[in-house]
Task: inverse folding
């Protein structure tokens, strides 16, 4: 099976759950709807070298990972986590082998967001311009500081520009064209 080129990391597998081989997943987001609705997960692992132990690195590169596809038979929220039954994993001993692996879903399988809502992964890479048409930079990440999300925008300055992702400052978002218009100035 071909691995999709639009995989988005959505969680990390923890300890097994129950006696029937369910996995316990810590979602990457406070709103794990995509994980709950998706019927196919891609689980990453590091490749085993020939006869040697699996390489352990602090942050493996995406291109170094090997992905396995799993059909999600059932999933449900459990406290701040998600528990799921994946096809082919029927014992807790087998589920324990997945501890620490990352869970990905193809971006193409995300449900359509409601009007005025955006997946953060779609905002990354968007070019941000102000009302005067000046390009402020490109969104490198979206972070949540509690009250609201903040766009981290890399421009010509040494430090990233931080722009609150709220209606008071964000005038227009076009994820298809990868453009965001903000009521913001370069010297803010």
Result:
């Amino acid at each position: 099976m071909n691995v999709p080129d639009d995989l988005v990391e959505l969680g990390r597998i923890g300890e097994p759950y129950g006696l029937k081989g369910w996995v316990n997943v810590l979602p990457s987001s406070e709103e794990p709807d995509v994980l709950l609705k998706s019927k196919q997960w891609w689980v990453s692992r590091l490749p085993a070298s020939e006869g040697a132990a699996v390489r352990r690195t602090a942050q493996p590169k995406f291109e170094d990972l090997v992905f396995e596809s799993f059909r999600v038979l059932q999933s449900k929220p459990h406290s701040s986590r998600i528990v799921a039954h994946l096809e082919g994993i029927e014992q807790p001993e087998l589920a324990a082998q997945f501890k620490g692996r990352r869970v990905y879903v193809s971006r193409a399988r995300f449900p359509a967001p409601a009007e005025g809502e955006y997946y953060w992964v779609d905002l990354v890479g968007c070019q941000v311009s102000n009302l005067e048409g000046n390009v402020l930079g490109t969104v490198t990440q979206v972070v949540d500081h509690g009250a609201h999300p903040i766009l981290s925008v890399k421009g010509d300055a040494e430090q990233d520009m931080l722009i609150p992702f709220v209606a008071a400052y964000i005038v227009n978002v076009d994820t298809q064209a990868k453009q965001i218009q903000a009521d913001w100035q370069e010297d803010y």
User: Anything to note?
Assistant: The radius of gyration is 19 Å. The domain at 7-109 is CATH 2.40.30.60 (Elongation Factor Tu (Ef-tu); domain 3). The longest helix spans residues 33-37.
